[in-house]
Batch of 3 targets.
Target 1
Amino acid sequence: MAGGGSGGEAKIPDVAILIGSCLVIAAFIMLFWDPSSTIEPPELDVELPPGTSSIGETWQTFDLNDGDEVSLDLDLVECPGEDDSGDCGLVSMAWVEGHDMPSAEDWQHHELKEGGSLETQFDVVSDGEWTLHLRTDSAIELDMDVEHQWLTPWIALFLGMAIAAWGYWMSQQQELSESDSLIVDLSNLSE
């Protein structure tokens, strides 16, 4: 034991149940937890010229496979400045392979109203790392979902379930063999 104490020997089936359960919990978190993120342009101490606003930029890289589909759901939370009539927020996005900076042709520009939303989809054309670049002059909320063509993200879930089931089955077999040996010992005592 770690604290200098003594404890019983850890049984392999108990360790298998623990490891399998941890894999199942981690797989559920990875597969089904879909956090949204908020992107806001920075607040500057200097006054900008009329008709301009600060731009918030972010990027994130994903390891994707050919045939995966990435769905983006953008909600414009708040427009910049005082005037919110008409299309008031600009959101630009670009997907590039690897860690390159996007060229002018890669960008898609969208004007949204306050409270408006935009849903787009990106189909992955080759295996590897893909980087999403976002620019906005407004506060936006981003929700992303990746539909994998292969069951790769599910491997941890299936593996964890198999390890935990094997550990449980082995612990039941050990209990049966211990109870059988106890019955044999009791019958030997009675003779």
Note: Residues 16 and 166 are 7 Å apart (CA to CA).
Target 2
Amino acid sequence: MIYIKETSPQKNITAIEVDGILDDESIPILKRVCEHHLASGKSVALNLQGIIHITREGRMYLQQIQSDILITHLPDFVKIDNS
């Protein structure tokens, strides 16, 4: 299960806080939220402090989006390549 909270601290930035588990079921939900804000021309800051578990697919998704989205508060147990 995933919980997503969206806020707009500035006009052109959307902050997204994610809590829970990032897996095959939750990736499409997070992807839709991020793509919606990017399509509207906003920058996205993704706060992952509340992630309690992430699957291999979740790590792969984060690797794919890290060039388009600012990822913050990545838990120590989550490792993604910076390539």
Note: The mean pLDDT is 93.
Target 3
Amino acid sequence: MHYILFIFMLLPCNLHEKQKALINTKWEYKVAEGCVSYITFKKNGTYENYNCEMDYPYSGKYEIKNDTIYLLEIDLESNVPSINKRNNYKKVITRRSKLVNKGDSLWYVSWEAFENKKWSKPITPPNEIFYKKK
């Protein structure tokens, strides 16, 4: 019984250590020659995801469960194409993504768009997308 209690006590520490290991790291994905997208993880559970094809930095919150990283993208409502453009500076949730940490790379598993107040079905990338640690 003490052994099980000890394991439960270590579990939050282990998850915190995994998050701590990502802080201030940058992961890059070469889309094409001269076009590199990246994800950087920050101290307070936030991240920046720069999309080189759109030349736009997305940001939001991240959470780690085991070896899976969940990104919750937050953007200005005025930047969301499906919402009426009103020069609104209100922040809204636009997407969530799922990545698996393989140690020296992050594998992009799926993403879901948040539209009309509900999540779309998960979309799997047509090609494997791996971010390499820099």
Note: The chain has a mean pLDDT of 82.
